[in-house]
TrEMBL record:
The lineage of its organism: Bacteria, Candidatus Yanofskyibacteriota. Signal peptide: none annotated. This is MBL fold hydrolase. It comes from Candidatus Yanofskybacteria bacterium RIFCSPLOWO2_02_FULL_45_10. Residues 243-368 form the Beta-Casp domain. Pfam families: Beta-Casp, Lactamase_B, RMMBL. Keywords: Hydrolase. Gene3D superfamilies: 3.40.50.10890, Ribonuclease Z/Hydroxyacylglutathione hydrolase-like. The keyword DNA-binding does not apply. GO terms for molecular function: hydrolase activity; RNA endonuclease activity. Residues 16-229 form the Metallo-beta-lactamase domain. InterPro entries: Beta_Casp, MBL, Metallo-B-lactamas, RibonucZ/Hydroxyglut_hydro, RMMBL. It comes from the Bacteria.
Amino acid sequence: MAQVKMTFCGGAQSVTGANYLIETETGQKILIDCGLAQGSRFAEDLNYAPFSYAPAEIDTIIITHAHADHFGRLPKLYRDGFRGRVLTSNGTRDVMEQAFPDNWQHIAEEAKFSGHPPLYTEADATGVMELVEGLDYYQTVDLGQGNSMSLLNAGHILGSSLVHLEINGKVLGFSGDLGNSGSLLMPEKDFIKDADYITVESAYGGRIHEDKTEREAKLLEALMHVVAHKGALMLPVFAVERAQEILFVINKLVENKIIPVLPVFFDSPLAIEMTRVYRKHQSEFNQAARDLIASGDDIFNFPGLRLTESVMESKKINDTPGPKIILAGSGMSTGGRILHHERRYLPGPDNAIVFVGYQVDGSLGRKILEGQRHVRIYNESVAVGCVIKAIGGFSGHADQPQLVDWVERANESGKLKKVFLVQGEDESAIALSEAIKAKISVDTVIPKMGESFEL
């Protein structure tokens, strides 16, 4: 059987920057994801570094989902010569289309601040979007030379996909980011059951999530603190999925009169736009969410909600006395409007900040969460005196038991030869490796950046 070579060009021993190259003996080259490195002090250097392969030689790239650490370097790939096919789900295509203008704005601002050229141009983002083909789940696509692929539901965010790749008679499975069971909006994740090799994320490979039934109670606890003290509740949210989930929960709390009607500022133009994309794809929600919509509940709207799309509207949030809730990006406090609110409200004990998503090592969100009493925002030292909470039950990532179960199910055919553990810090990947080997007899590998394997 002909050999297949897989190289880990990103996402190895790192949570972000997913980028995996598959090469066949006949010269076909396929990429899985092309993400930005995020969070660490080396991220900018990694993103600007040349690709370790010739972009012009890539035939196809498959994007698992529309988070920047999985698709954010696509325009740079295009800028450097890529003109092949970009395959992804219909939902991911629509999310990417809205995300690129926002990403470009941040790229341009960062370049201006640091004094180097932008990572890519707006024309590069437009150009690569013209190459994107949206696919239905379970649709088989011919890649040429007898190879094929299909996408399955990953249950992580709208459009998130597992990749089932048949290359030279071998089945390669890629998890992308695996969703957490019990999502408020997404259906349960699928399984790849006939794989020879699988590449699995390990962001929470060493963790067991808290009980999902506690997520609303914990949010309510923080919310009642700011109601009692007339403070501000800050919610750093990712524009895709987490923002919509939080709206969903607040809608429930308001409409069931569990909390009073109070100002809820949705202060993220991108998240507002993404919510419109979610409305377009509500047929992809889980049954419970679809039933609510069918009953007439507008799950993303409720009394008190204010959409602050313009900068002027955002600045006026300061004029509204507490209690109030502010949803803004970015989810890890690495940029976006949340920084302005954090600079203003972090010092006050009447206020609270609640993290509802993963905080990568080195990010401002991680520093706040780990208890730093002073942080730097816009080159100012800002005291941290507010209530700080993290709610793991909102996590969009599978935890260790779910990841182990997913790998076990991948071995149902009995032909699973190797499991590659990626997209996690070393400690998480090692813990997941040990947990997998305690359950099934399979070779687990934690690849290094740039390491290649013959499959």
